[in-house]
Amino acid sequence: MNAGAHPLLHSLLRTKPVGDIVKEGGEGEGGELKRSMSLLQLTLFSVGATLGTGIFVVLGEAVPLAGPAVVLSFLLAAFTAMFSALSYAELAGTIPVSGSSYSYAYATLGELIAWVSGWCLLLEYAVSVSAVAVGWGQYLNDLFDQAFGFTLPAAISSPPGDGGVVNIPAVVIVLLATFLLLRGTSESAVANTIMVLLKIGILLFFCAVAFTAFQSKNTQPFAPMGFAGLSAAGSKVFFSYIGFDAASTAGEEARNPRRDLPLAIVFSLAIVTTVYVLVALAAVGAMPLGEFDAEGSEASLSTVLERATGQSWPSIILSLGAVIAIASVVLTVMYGQTRILFAMSRDGLVPPIFQRVNPRTQVPLANTLIVAAFISVLGAAVPLGQLTDATSIGTLFAFAMVNVGVIVLRRTKPDMPRSFHTPLFPVTPLLGVGFCVYLMVKLSGVTWGVFALWTLGGLLAYFLYGRRHSRLARDPGGTS
What we know:
The structure is a single chain. The protein is globular, with a radius of gyration of 22 Å. It contains 20 helices and no strands. It has 480 residues and is mainly alpha-helical. The N and C termini lie close together (6 Å). The chain has one domain: Amino acid/polyamine transporter I (Up-down Bundle), CATH 1.20.1740.10. The longest helix has 38 residues. The relative contact order is 0.20.
């Protein structure tokens, strides 16, 4: 940047050289984190973070909007996510570190935008995993009720505001995830791989059973609400795709990051889309449109199975799948949260305690415990309400910045080695930005209000702490 520029503007727009980011990530010198994750484990990490409870409940909300054409709504949402996924794949292969869109923005758009991206990711990860942990108690109760005929008292299985005093199951699932994370990355990856394969198997079991009751008349008329209904359902189910970027938070623990990170992101999106489309097609073919609940139903897939078989045991298996799905989401999203904080701490923007790594397990110990404590309190005692919707807008902002980052880095570092090139550049990232902005505009005013307050809090934190402690502030020669 021009040395004569205003000092404040210079500090806000200073970028971190890509070479420095990669070097700190341990490529070539050996990093603080252990490189132990294979391509399969990276792919299933992203699948684990994406394939959560959404598919178990979203059909009850989306089918009344689109009818049987909800199958195309999932494809439309996947097409929308694909543009951002391709941009993530290029930057993950070019800048293979733990910070995900935060690190990519730091290299391309400057420190302030990087901070806001990181702050949005903290909102996405912390609040979403808390909400998911809250839901785990509900699904656990559903499993207990169907399998054993009893449920946990509401006082200890629901948060305040939802008829409870403290949500013990939310704390339990966070503690279980914390235990795995503290044991080491390879142990966490193995556990996640098992859980993801189980929940994919259970969803394929659903498809196998539902297809036995498939009737073509249930798919007519195919699109009763036309394209407007199809696109409305597409906007709703899009958020079932959030999480495909989880592999990008494992950049410093991948064995071959430049090759494996782009592949893991693309493969995970393809796997999730295939599962979603199969489940949607099986469901709409097995049950008439009028029987889907227009208000949404947490047991919509269970309802399909009960109608298809006339028995309750398939629903028990499906409830088990939902419990496993939530557990893997909590594990992978908590992992991503700690690695983003690790990257921000290494840059000096958050306190140094978040980058201290246990020499035996090679995981950020204090970081993981602090994140676990925060999420446990949030899930156990705080009514999340509209705050959960704000995770969507924070995610879309981060996605948009990654698409912009691809364009900027192509212009500023055209000759830099890239293991993956976003096809049809610059059309692909521009469409990625456009779709993200479109979906952000569609969100409610309350969501925008929460996002504005969160962003304001983040800016205060940056100017009170981050800007003064930034490593680039102490080493101006490192800016570009």
